[in-house]
Amino acid sequence: MVALDLLAFARANLPRPPARLLEVGAGDGELARMLADAGYEVLAIDPDPTAPGIRSVPLHQLDEPAGSFDAALAVTSLHHVQPLEQSLSRLAELLKPGAVLVVDEFDVAAFDERAAGWWLRQRHALGAAEQASPEELVGEHRAHLHPLERVVAALKPHFHLGMPLYGAYLYRWNLDESLRAEEQAAIARAEIPAVGARLLAQRHA
Questions:
Q1: Following DSSP, what letter does each residue of 81-124 receive, concatenated?
Q2: Measuring CA to CA, which of 37, 50, 163, 190 is 20 to 30 A from 28?
Q3: How many structural domains is the chain composed of?
Q4: For residue 2, is pLDDT > 90?
Q5: CA separation for the pair 91, 43 (Å, rounded)
C-alpha cells in the first residue's frame, strides 16, 4: 500500500497531468496505477516486476528517445540500481531539460542498530519470525545497498539537487501506516535515527 505522505509528496512536486512520467523501480505498480488514475501517462519499469503492466528492463537499458519524459520518480529504488552512474546518466538523457526527478529513499548509511532493533521489535509484535539480530540486519543491508551520499554523487553531474529532507521510513518496510506516528515520536526523542530521505532534482537545462 502506498503511504499517504509519499503520494502527497509526489503529487505536490510533479507537473500537472497529463504529463508523461517515468517511474524507476515500480515494484508492484501501485503508485504508477494511482498516478495513471490521476491523469498521468506513466511508464513504469523494474528489472524484477511483481505485477503486470510494468516493463521488465533495467534503467540503463531502457530504449526510449532522449527527452521522452516530463518528470520521473524513484521510490526506494536508486539504492538498488546497477550500474548506478551509468543508469542515472541514462535517466538524465530520458528527461526533458528542466524536468523534475522526485526521489524517495532509504539511506542505508543512517540505518544503525537502534533503527534495526526498533524495526525488529515491530515485526515481532506483528507475529513475524525474523531471525536476524540488529547487527546482522545492518551489516546485510550496508553490504549491498548504495548509501544516499553515493546516489547524490551520481546524480550531481546531471541534476540541480535540493537538500535531502530526512524523516520516518521504517513503518513502510513490511510494517504498517499506523506505526508512522510511533516512528516519528521515536525519532523526535532521538531514540532512533531518521533513515528515510526525500529530495528533488532538476535536470540541467
A1: -SSHHHHHHHHHHHEEEEEEEEEEEE-TTT--HHHHHHHHHHHH
A2: 163
A3: 1
A4: no
A5: 13
